Amino acid sequence: MRTNDQDVGALRRALLPLLWMFVLLNMIYADILSLMDPASPIRRIMVGTARVPAGLLVGAILMETSIGMVLLSRILPRQANRYANIAAVVINIPAVLLGGRGAYYYFFAGIETLGMIAILFLVIRWPEPDPEKTIGPNQAPVPTPLPVTSPAGQEDVPAGGRGSS
User: Fold this and answer.
1) What radius of gyration do the chain's Cα atoms show?
2) Can you tell me the mean pLDDT for 35-54?
3) What pTM was computed for the model?
4) Whole-angstrom Cα distance, residue 110 to residue 104?
5) How is the chain split into domains, by residue range?
6) If 0-12 CB within 10 Å is exposed, 13-18 middle and 19+ buried, where does residue 52 land?
7) Are 95 and 87 contacting, i.e. CB atoms less than 8 angstroms apart?
């Protein structure tokens, strides 16, 4: 069964925020586990290793790109949605792959990367809507006239009734 362009767009609008939440939850849990790992860069920061405030700001901005995409991927128009998702994936994949150490972290990084590749695949393959089939926000669908039929054996009666002249 083939779906129309509006169905495909609606499915992508529903699926993209779910994929971003999946990626984000994996990022958060990987960071939580990193707090328990004495060799983790996050743990060293938490126990007092000096950190430049600008580095914390960069980390906050990086996380906000994923958090923001949960909302933006739902509300942005198709073209802006594609650009925003591609930019967020391109920014986040290297950060995820270079962000931690240890087998547990590499496991999470692999899952997060696969999630972001799925996001990239969805937005790159998002078809452009067919203008012939799309109804804009200020357009109403053109009604199809219904055929006028009368029950079998009866004549259509003029508006004035029988015998009126």
Assistant:
1) 28
2) 72
3) 0.69
4) 10
5) 5-124
6) exposed
7) no
